[in-house]
Write a structure and sequence with these properties.
Rossmann fold; DNA-binding; alpha/beta; six-stranded mixed sheet; homodimer; 434 Repressor (Amino-terminal Domain); disordered C terminus; 13 helices; six-stranded parallel sheet
DNA sequence: CTGTTAGCGCGTTCAG
DNA sequence: CTGAACGCGCTAACAG
């Protein structure tokens, strides 16, 4: 394996000249540069990443901490990771995966102290997240996907749940729906302070109430079976229900099953709207589910940019951004049925 | 950040003693070791990964090359990556993601020459894969998930498509099915030499023919729409079809839709068996799909072990293994219908 | 514009 | 059982 001094010797210059030719940190006479480059090419030289990192004190590696990548049908996490990896590559960084659960803050700290990563990306942030404290104590730059309780100025990108929910409700209300239920993630996730669950619920309650409608929301385990049971319970609670918003992909299949078993048509009797979905899930159901899909790829890119802007002072700072989900028409939404006594506002 | 010489000073020993205390490469007097360890603890010392790698010429990093992680509902790839990351951690290795397509062999070579990774894991291997040549030329240890054309002794782990298909067919035949169709991945993947598509097709043809049945297989784009069209075409070609094996998760949803639209019941009229599926997909359909799910987690672990056994001579070598998919009962399989004239063997 | 050289933090001979 | 010292390959002063 050729080293930088092999290149220097072969090009008849000193190692520092080669180094500067590579980094561009100081001007090199064009013809010298040419000789160096051809020497590099003929030797197949690539700078040793470890030596470079040791000397420069920057590893050009970022770490992605994620609890579960293969969870459920979650193409949403997959899409995100893919996007992060690609964006990191574009910026000439490497991406390492740190598969730690939320409660493994100590392991994270130890790895961070080894200085293998210049910065850390944190997925699945909870409202109170000890990992954040550990990283701040270790002075490790980070960016989170999601937000902690105090939405102070910690670097983050996230889904805009409020705006997504607003779009969802407005869309349904525009079609005459008034009795709109919401199926959320599980109660455990809710009480663990899992951001999406908590904030979507808050947005739903607030927006429904503001419009003078009665909120009807349920937590639900991530499974079709539970989704089905919850749907049955919702219909029992409010038989005049005309629409269901779900933020739980697996449960949504249960929603379809329960409605089908009651001979309730979608969207004739009940409209169904999946929010924060992974790409393609809509097409898996019949009729195709209308969705607002999670902007995973965009979040991935933004998260990397947000982190790198801290590592590299030359980069333009990336403000904390909230990205709304995008409505993808399916065939599961229609006008509210009027054959039942659906109360209207005056 | 504490360095090894801080620890040495604090413990009143030399740096080399600390180093040996860490690596265990030579005996240290217990009381000396104690002093060193308490010094490390109170300083929060963690060895600098870059310095260690540079000196030892081993990065303790393995790279995972993967073309697409978020493809479709592919929890299968997600499960695999998750498992690889965890196994690497257990072995005290880091996992970096190299998001390169199959045709980006040069980029792979350049990264490899930077010596950031001690070895490489290759997903989605094709029958003729230039990446393999590049890695061998660069003398970079690797293990592939999948196999090249010449099943010589290259380190690999893979799904046992032949045995999986045998189990699938035997299961259906045991229920009286004789006219069993097979829906594969797309024609492009087939002609690109994508291993799973090619080998599953070969296994299907061979096993059906060996039993004296007529093979009826189709390639199919990975989408419900195409799956539906292909199903229609299959039923037109052989109206007496009683079972369909699919190795295409998205297409399977189309199979269900087409059968439903013809009022053909599952499994009353047609049995459906999904093979090489990701976890949980079975429950997304109604009736729940009987599946043989991809052993993603096990493959991930094995792949890491296979690679590490090459990096660390002390490890016991891991032979190339083929892991069959595991049958997961659903409700989409039943006895072959007999009201039609289904030819039986004598 | 280019060269010399002192580290970066640790592994690992070689002496003791 | 322990220490001193060299080198891994490169970056970045400092010195021309």
């Amino acid at each position: 394996m050729a080293t930088i001094s092999d290149v220097a010797r072969s090009a008849g210059v000193s190692v520092s000249t080669v180094s500067y030719a590579i980094s561009g940190a100081r001007p090199i006479r064009p013809e010298t540069r040419e000789r160096i480059q051809s020497a590099m090419r003929s030797l197949g030289f690539q700078p040793n990443a470890m030596a470079r990192s040791l000397a420069s004190r920057r590893s050009r590696v970022i770490a992605l901490i994620y609890p579960q990548i293969g969870g459920g049908i979650g193409g949403t996490a997959g899409e995100f990771v893919q996007s992060v990896a690609e964006r990191a590559r574009e910026a000439d960084y490497q991406l390492v995966l740190w598969p730690f659960r939320t409660d493994q803050a100590r392991e994270i700290r130890n790895l961070a102290r080894q200085r293998m990563a210049d910065g850390v990306l944190l997925m699945e942030v909870c409202l109170d997240d000890e990992r954040i404290d550990v990283l701040e104590a270790a002075k490790v730059p980070y960016a989170m996907i999601g937000r902690t309780r105090d939405v102070t100025e910690r670097p983050s990108v996230d889904i805009d749940f409020a705006s997504t929910m607003e779009t969802a409700i407005a869309h349904l209300v525009g079609l005459g729906h008034r009795r709109i239920a919401f199926i959320n993630h599980s109660g455990e996730q809710m009480s663990a302070g899992y951001g999406p669950a908590v904030r979507a619920a808050a947005a739903y309650d607030g927006l429904m109430t503001a419009r003078g409608f009665v909120p009807l929301s349920r937590t639900c385990d991530d499974s079709p079976v539970t989704g089905r049971a919850v749907t049955a319970e919702l219909l029992a609670t409010d038989p005049e229900l005309t629409a269901i918003i779900t933020m739980n992909e697996l449960a949504t299949f249960g929603v379809y099953a329960e409605l089908a078993s009651r001979n309730l048509s979608i969207p004739g009797d009940v409209s169904v709207l999946g929010i924060v979905t992974s790409p393609g899930v809509g097409t898996l159901s019949y009729p195709p589910l209308t969705t607002m899909h999670s902007p995973g790829a965009e979040l991935g890119r933004l998260a990397v940019d947000c982190l790198l802007s801290q590592l590299d002072p030359a980069r333009t700072p990336v403000p904390n951004q909230l990205i709304p989900c995008v409505l993808e028409p399916g065939m599961s939404i229609g006008p509210a049925r009027t054959d039942l006594d659906v109360p209207q506002r005056p």
